[in-house]
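User: Can you help me understand a structure? I only have the sequence.
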Amino acid sequence: MALVTLSNHGEGTIEQLGLDQACHERGRLGEDLGWLAAVGLVRRDSSAGSWDISDPGAVYRLSTLGATVAASLAALAQACGATAAHRRVNP
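Assistant: Let's start by predicting it. Here is the structure, written out as tokens:
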């Protein structure tokens, strides 16, 4: 969810990106963003400096690698949709 949102919106705080509403029920947003950062897909500009400290004002953005992965996933989804549509037309 975070990769798609960041890919669509560029950058922003969790609130600006709407990630808090989308992921709040799972209670895993911090873990998800931390994992994405650990593997180099997401960056965070924060006055807190540490991912261990919650910072509502932190700005999140995709890294170059993250943007590439998000674009690849979007292309894959589009190709899968085209393939499924092709199967319905040509069984």
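Now, to help you interpret it: The first helix runs from residue 2 to 9. Residues 1 and 19 are 8 Å apart (CA to CA). Let me know which part you'd like to focus on.
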